[in-house]
Amino acid sequence: MSLRRIIATLASAVSAIGLAALLPLAPPAYAASCAAPYAASAVYTGGMTASYGGHNWSAKWWTQGEAPSTGGSGVWADQGDCGGSTPPTNPGGFVVSEAQFNQMFPNRNSFYTYAGLTAALSAYPGFANTGSDTGKKQEAAAFLANVSHETGGLVHIVEQNTANYPHYCDTTQPYGCPAGQAAYYGRGPIQLSWNFNYKAAGDALGIDLLHNPNLVQTDAAVAWKTGLWYWNTQNGPGTMTAHNAMVNSAGFGQTIRSINGSLECDGKNPAQVQSRINSYQSFTSILGVPTGSNLSC
C-alpha cells in the first residue's frame, strides 16, 4: 500500500471516530405510562386498556373477571412494559416507584407526596425491606392498602367526622391534653388519634406531637412517619404488629386486625374488610406479586 493511501485510510478512520464522538447518543427509552389498573369487577370491551403486572393490556373483545395474561381465552393483548416516560424513581431502594405510587393513588391529595413517604422510611428501615423481594412488595402493598382505606385513597388528611374530635382526650393520662381536648382527632395516612398515641408516636420519633399534633396534618414526612410508627410498633386490637404479620407470613388479614380488628374483624363489618382486601389485591397486582394467603380476618 502506498504512503499516500495509508495516510488517506488513517485520515478516514480518524474522521469516522471523531464524527462518532460528536454525534449525540440516543436518549434511553423508558416504559410507557401505565393505564388505569385492572379491576376484576370492571367490564372491558374491545379497545379498552388496563395495566396489570407492570404491563399495559388491551382488550380484544368484551370481558369481565379474566385477569390480563397471554393465556386464557386470548382476550388480552400485551402492549408492553409501563411505568412512565421518565426514569423510575425509587429513592433509597423503596420497592414502590413513584410511577406505581401515582398509579395506586390517582386522585390523592397533594399533601401526601411520594417524597414525604420516602423521607419517612429512614425512621423504620426494616419496613418493606425485610425478607424476599416478594415479601417486601407485599408489605408495601399491605401498608398502602390499609392507608388507602383509612384516607379514601389518600384524599383525606384529617378525620371527617368532627363530632368525634372532643372524644380523643384520655384525661386519665398524667400528661393530659395540652393542645386542647379536641386536638387529638385522626390525622395522616393511618389517621392517628388519641392523646396517648400522639405522645407515644412523638416520643418514638423524637417529635413533640403531644403539644404539636397539627404537625401530622401540615408536614407530609411527619404524617407518613406516624403511619409507619403504628404499622411497625403497635399491635392495636391484634396480637402482633402489622409489620410482623407480613414479615412472618401471618397474612394481610392480620394487618386489618391490628389496625381496626375490634370494629371490623370476626364478621363485625365484612364490607370494610373487603374494601381493604380489594385495595391490597389491586396494589399487589401493580407491583407484580401474589397476595399470599389469609387475606381476611
From TrEMBL:
UniProt protein name: Chitinase
Keyword Thylakoid assigned: no
Gene3D superfamilies in the record: 1.10.530.10, Carbohydrate-binding module superfamily 5/12, Endochitinase, domain 2
Alphabetical UniProt keywords: Disulfide bond, Hydrolase, Plant defense, Signal
Keyword Signal carried by entry: yes
Organism: Streptomyces melanogenes
Highest taxon above the source species: Bacteria
Domain Chitin-binding type-3: 35-79
Signal peptide: 1-31
SMART domains, sorted: ChtBD3
Listed SUPFAM superfamilies: Carbohydrate binding domain, Lysozyme-like
